[in-house]
Amino acid sequence: MRLLEERIVQDGLVLGSGVLKVDTFLNHQIDPQLMEEMAIEWKKRLEGVPVTKIVTIESSGIAPALMLAKLYGVEMVFARKQKSITMDDSVYTADVYSFTKQVSRTVTISKQFLSSDDHVVLVDDFLANGEAALGLCDVVEQAGASVSAIAIVIEKSFQPGRKKLDDRNYHVESLARIETLEMDHIEFIHE
Ligand code: 5GP
């Protein structure tokens, strides 16, 4: 998606070890106009795909996921990274290793918010090693629901996540696919 790629080049800060900082529009400050354009683009790409629910993981997935849910007219659920004291034991959980924080966490969704009738689009801000996406797939599938698609804002295609999801036959739609991530040079894959 051209608009997003331009924004990444303009605002993105490449940190060492393959990490991209995009705090000006996605991970800290959020650009609602861009979030809306992204949701429109995903919906266009997902034409014909059944969707009854949008699922993401806190916190940076929430903004784009909410925009997409609004477009589809369905609810959005975000997986919690820490179990809230208001949650009872009726939860689905999966262990997810965080690429940026380098710790393992249990992500949780209340059983109340997923059912076996659901067709879910998963949303996340980044795809790196695929841990977060696979954890969310696990949670959705524990509920007997189906994963209709995985919608990613920024895919770092030089890391193994995309291949892992392709190998499991998930439908992945990444709005920006980064092939090369260097301090002074970012290259994208265009299909
Ligand atoms: P994965 O689980 O695919 O290894 O990593 C995805 C998660 O790690 C995303 O939810 C995102 O929060 C974080 N992440 C991975 N790579 C980056 C990156 O380059 N920049 C930022 N800001 N977050 C990242």
Describe how the helices and strands are arranged:
Layout: H1 2-11, E1 13-15, E2 19-21, H2 32-45, E3 53-57, H3 62-72, E4 75-79, E5 91-97, E6 104-110, E7 119-127, H4 131-142, E8 146-156, H5 161-167, E9 172-182, E10 185-188
Parallel strand pairs: 3-4, 3-7, 7-8, 8-9
Antiparallel strand pairs: 1-2, 5-6, 9-10
Helix pairs in contact: 2-3
The chain binds guanosine-5'-monophosphate.
The total tally of domains equals: 1
Biggest β-sheet: count, sense, barrel? Answer: 6 strands, mixed
Distance between the termini: 11 Å
Bound molecules: guanosine-5'-monophosphate
Helix content: 25-40%
Mean of residue pLDDT values:
95
Protein architecture, described:
By secondary structure, the chain is an alpha/beta fold. It has a single domain, classed as Rossmann fold. Helices cover 28% and strands 34% of the residues. It contains 5 helices and 10 strands; from the N terminus they run H-E-E-H-E-H-E-E-E-E-H-E-H-E-E. The chain has helices spanning 2-11, 32-45, 62-72, 131-142, 161-167; strands at residues 13-15, 19-21, 53-57, 75-79, 91-97, 104-110, 119-127, 146-156, 172-182, 185-188. The strands form 3 sheets. A 6-stranded mixed sheet has the order 4-3-7-8-9-10, sandwiched between helices. A two-stranded antiparallel ribbon has the order 1-2. A two-stranded antiparallel sheet has the order 5-6. A hairpin with a 3-residue loop joins strand 1 and strand 2 (19-21). It is globular, with a radius of gyration of 16 Å. The model has no long low-confidence stretch (mean pLDDT 95). Bound molecules: guanosine-5'-monophosphate (5GP). Guanosine-5'-monophosphate is lined by residues 19-21, 27, 60, 98-100, 124-133, 161. It catalyses: XMP + diphosphate = xanthine + 5-phospho-alpha-D-ribose 1-diphosphate. This is Xanthine phosphoribosyltransferase. 5-phospho-alpha-D-ribose 1-diphosphate binds at residues 128-132. Residues 51-172 form the Phosphoribosyltransferase domain. Xanthine binds at residues 20, 27, 156.
